[in-house]
Write a structure and sequence with these properties.
Shape: elongated
CATH architecture: Orthogonal Bundle
Organism: Paracraurococcus ruber
CATH class: Mainly Alpha
Number of strands: 0
Number of helices: 5
CATH topology: 434 Repressor (Amino-terminal Domain)
Strand content: under 5%
Order of helices and strands: HHHHH
Protein name: Transcriptional regulator
Helix content: 55-70%
Number of domains: 1
Structural class: mainly alpha
Distance between the termini: 33 Å
Largest sheet: none
Radius of gyration: 15 Å
């Protein structure tokens, strides 16, 4: 869900239309709308491909709480 919202925001900021992203991905505009729609299921891989198509990389990370607490001092 967060990745979809981030894709939406990046597209707005960079001025990338649904039609432009669809052309970059080689899909139809409805597919791009589904990628951005919060209630439509999409894989992280598909969303990642959309980011790559506009020159970005989607990164999802998890960090150890213990490691974070040790470095906070």
């Amino acid at each position: 869900m967060v990745a979809k919202l981030l894709l939406h925001d990046v597209m707005l900021i960079d001025g990338v239309s649904d039609q432009r992203l669809a052309a970059l991905l080689g899909v139809d505009r409805d597919t791009v709308r589904h990628l951005r729609a919060p209630m439509h299921s999409s894989t992280v891989g598909a969303i990642g491909e959309a980011f790559r198509a506009i020159g970005l990389r989607l990164v999802i990370a998890a960090h150890s709480v213990a490691a974070t607490e040790d470095t906070a001092d």
